[in-house]
Structures are given as C-alpha cells and as structure tokens.
Amino acid sequence: MACPSSLRIWVGTRKGAFAFTSKDRKKWDCDGPFFAGQEVHHVAQDPRDPKRHYAAVGNAWFGPHLHASTDNGKTWQISEKGLEVKGINRQILASHRKRNGAEGDPRCHLETHLAHRTRCG
Fold it and tell me: For residue 59, which phi and psi values (nearest 5 degrees)?
C-alpha cells in the first residue's frame, strides 16, 4: 500500500487549532493557531470533498459555532447552515440504534457533532 504524499493531523486546543503536516512522519511542520484564543473542540475533513473542513469552535460565554473551510483550512467562515445532512431515513436510524445497542429505545436519537459519535442508551 502506497503512502500518501503528505499527512495532515489537526489538533484542537483551548488556545486554537493547529495543523501538523509531514511527508515522511519524521519531520513535522506546524501551521496555526487557527481561531487564536478560542477553544477548538473538533476539526474534521469531509471525506466527500477533501478540501472541505469543519471546525467546532466555541467557549462558555459565546457558545459553540461551526466553521467551514473550502480551501483545506487556509480560510474559515461561520457555517450559517451548519452541516447539511441529506438522506437520513428510518432505515439509517434503525441501523444506528442497532449498532449502538439501543434498538427500540425511543430515547435514542442520531446525534452528529462532526465526527464525534455518542453511545445511545
């Protein structure tokens, strides 16, 4: 299996987000901070569009905000529409509940917070 030309790892901290990039996994370059001085809880790449990224940014005073980037994280905009989810139906929800051991539990619902999954039940 061939290695990708470069690897990027996003790290969210209380001081902002940092992007670490390496071609050989021995030497790493650091970009950032993005969202300097703000808490970054998650940064996720959209698997359907590798240049699109989402970041969950927020703090206790102003609350959480979803930011989106369409240029591989170089610039960010607040995503007013949030994550656009299409095609969730009863079959997908039932499959999610079954996988998480909450089949038939009416309290269980599908929660999406970027790539973070919560266990139902």
Answer: -150, 175
